[in-house]
Amino acid sequence: MTLMTRVVELRAMQYRRTFRASIFSSFLNPVLFLLAMGVGLGTYVDQSGTATQALGGLSYLQFLAPGLLAATAMQAAAFESTFPIIGGLSWQKTFHAMYATPVSARDIVVGNLAWIAIRLTSIAAIFTIVMALFGAAASPLILLAIPAAVLTGMAFATPIMAFTATQRTMEKFNAVFRFGITPLFLFSGTFFPISNLPDAIEPVAWLSPLWHGVELSRRLALGTIGEDPVQALVHVAILVAIVAVGTWFAYRTVESRLVLG
Amino acid sequence: MTVQPSSPDSALIHARGLTKLFGDFVAVDGIDFDVAVGESFGFLGPNGAGKTSTMRMIGCVSPITDGTLQVLGHDPRTDGPMIRGRIGVVPQQDTLDTELTVRENLLIYGRYFGLSRAECGRRADELLEFAQLTERAGDQVEPLSGGMKRRLTIARALINEPDLLLLDEPTTGLDPQARHLLWDRLYRLKQRGVTLVLTTHYMDEAEQLCDRLVVMDKAKIVAEGSPRQLIAQYATKEVTELRFPVGVQETLNGQLDGLAERIELLPDRVLLYADDGEAAVAAAHARGLQPETVLVRRSSLEDVFLRLTGRSLVE
Amino acid sequence: MTASPLPLSGLFTLGSRRARHLVERNILVYRHGWIVILSGFFEPLFYLGSIGFGLGALIGTVNGPGGQPISYQLFVAPALLASAAMNGAVMEGTFNFFFKLRYSKTFESILSTPLSPGDVAVGELIWALIRGGIYAIAFTIVMAVLGLIVSPWVILAVPAALLIGFAFGAIAMAATSFMRTWQDFDLIQLVILPLFLFSGTFYPLDAYPESIRFVIQLTPLYQGVDLLRSLVVGHLDWSLLFHVAYLVIMGIIGLTIVARRLDKLLLK
User: Fold this and answer.
1) Residue numbers of the domain that contains A213
2) Does B98 touch chain C (CB under 8 A)?
3) Mutation site for C-interface testing, chosen from A44, A52, A202 by largest number of C Cβ within 10 Å
4) CB distance from C190 to chain A under 8 Å?
């Protein structure tokens, strides 16, 4: 099991080369969204009486920021569990090279997931600092929104990694992002309360792992988590369950891929 | 009055002082050659000798730096598209369209030449037959074996029924069986009268396919002739290869002198050039030399190249 | 005498009728990968549903072109069409073009045929425009279904979207011809995302101070957003001609650079 740290080491070495790209996707991107939507569009949202009511008296920036935190973790996790993983399994075959040493399939899966968790933690921490600077942090509990965002991200990283290991080309990734990640980003309560969705569609949003993550981090950021601790626990339980099942599947698919060569 | 350079009507390719520079690097250094209709002409030389640069200039995808080049009687500088329309190109690395199927590769390539869809379809089916790929017509390109991809590339190069077929290292990287299959296809083309121009660093390929060839080294042509002529001119009938135990070869100073017309010391073996190989072996044994292995063989273009450049062709 | 086909494009000796064969190739390719085409159409629709309707319900009305209040959906829909036209053209002109230029051997094999680098550039651009045109038509139909058609001038939305695609596609290809590695594409993202978010796409420019407003009015996507929005709500004035001229000149500059660079890159 200690060998999995070697996998983390490898990923960290690779990361130094793609550092610039990741600063953009993991930091600048959400900050720009926060600025345009939270501050710019927020001005217009806050002027309207309907909005004040629907958002429970919150400013739009306060409403949006924790949602974007969870959504950013999801996007980063989806990226990290597709391209670098297919790179190691199909393009450069670095994972196959590791598999030829005492490093096991489990080390490779756990090591990569650990690396993704580290990345998500740093992304969420930086984003939380930015939120505070924008004045969108209402409670010190916002610090707990960081692990909540990481958990949300891992609920995507694990099943997507399991899927990636079954692919030999990146052809289907486009569909995953366009028909999976993008609609979840837009309709999981990040930009507007899901109660604004048509009644028939609203229950569908409950199926979105991102919605659970958004709710969790929003309640933590606003310090309202204590109002309904049972619901908060349900969110956590669902996300943990997805991570557990996802990890198991990732282990299965990555191992069979390594065995196949 | 200026004197017109000679430009024989029969020459498909006519080059004088052909030069290609990449910055300061001289890729092709003022070479002269002619290729006649129906001929099978080869450029033999090691990697980096300037073969591919020459081929790209003939194919009108690389502007010439200096000298004269006429392809099919036209100047690539002004008539590139027209010349390209009448030649077929098999590049060194497969450039198949991996986003299309085997048959679609042929169809769309034909369209680039302005052929009608019906004509493309007819020729594609014919060429699939020729390339022995009919069964794979609907498959994607990527899973094909190296030999199949090569055959498909050749089929693609024939879609416009070219007057001239350019093949850059046609069998490099293929296994022996795939090479022989490919040579067979190229031999058939040759018999149909298609003019072939190919580059290779395999002497056996040059011997199999070329009526005439030039040996290139360091951007220049160092010899020209048919394989048989070149061997007769630059090598003996037979060659004897002697391999000594490790460390012994270095101690042989002077002991080999006079054993053959010419002696080459390679890092791993000694080559004795003498028309009678067995006699050379007997002479060596008579001097008390004890090589570990002895091989007597016919001379090849490899020996020609060694003689001309002092280096092996394939390193 | 052999007649060599004359270049169609009058402005440059760039591209001939052979360019259409490249379009044919791309159609063949996308018969296998139609899902990619489909996905490009859904992206603006998702944004319209989420930001336009979901969030828009909380906003009500905002000031449209000419200052008259319009529903937020009507405000944001044409801007999403403009952004989609930009995004599609930029994707085609950067990632796909770069891949074909540097990695895939597709262009290399095509240049062994009578096609020239100019044909390749024009063919790729035409293809990007065909895709963009299909998206624009589909999006306009969706707008009609959602009751977002209020002016007959909307009929010009599709050609306007094509103009945006032309301008951004050509400039993107020009930029791509200077790119060396995939890493350089961060820079493209660094330009595209702020344009998407801050060009008056999601809220009126009144939100900005005067000086920033002036700068934004000079950026390329703003031209497209304001042009499309004005056509959709039927508010026409002379400033639209400025937008059109801006985009036309941008496209021509892009094409000129591509033409110069491609010969250099491909004919070594």
Assistant:
1) 56-260
2) yes
3) A44
4) yes
List chains touching C (3+ CB pairs under 8 A): A, B
The confidence band for B314, taking pLDDT boundaries of 50, 70 and 90, is low
- Identify the CATH number of the domain in which residue B38 sits: 3.40.50.300
Q: Which of C111, C116, C263 to substitute to test the interface with B, most B CBs within 10 Å?
A: C111
Nearest to A187 among C50, C190, C202 (CB): C50
* Residue B90 belongs to a domain: yes
> Ranked by mean pLDDT, which of A245-259, C3-17, C100-114 comes out on top?
A245-259
Residues B126-158: tens digit of each pLDDT: 999 999 999 999 999 988 998 999 999 999 999
Can you give the residue range of the structural domain that contains B294?
Answer: 236-298
Q: pLDDT tier at B4 (50, 70, 90 boundaries)?
A: very low
Number of domains in chain A: 1
> Do both B52 and B146 map to the same domain?
yes
- Average pLDDT value for chain C: 87
* Any domain includes A156: yes
Residue A11 lies in a domain: no
Ordered DSSP codes for chain B:
-PPPPP--TTEEEEEEEEEEEETTEEEEEEEEEEEETT-EEEEE--TTSSHHHHHHHHTTSS--SEEEEEETTB-HHHHHHHHHTTEEEE-SS----TTSBHHHHHHHHHHHTT--HHHHHHHHHHHHHHTT-GGGTTSBSTTS-HHHHHHHHHHHHTTT--SEEEEESTTTT--HHHHHHHHHHHHHHHHTT-EEEEEES-HHHHHHH-SEEEEEETTEEEEEE-HHHHHHHHS-SEEEEEE--TTTGGG-TTTTTTSSSEEEE-SS-EEEE-S-HHHHHHHHHHTT---SEEEEEE--HHHHHHHHHSS-S--
Check residue B2 and give its pLDDT. Answer: 38
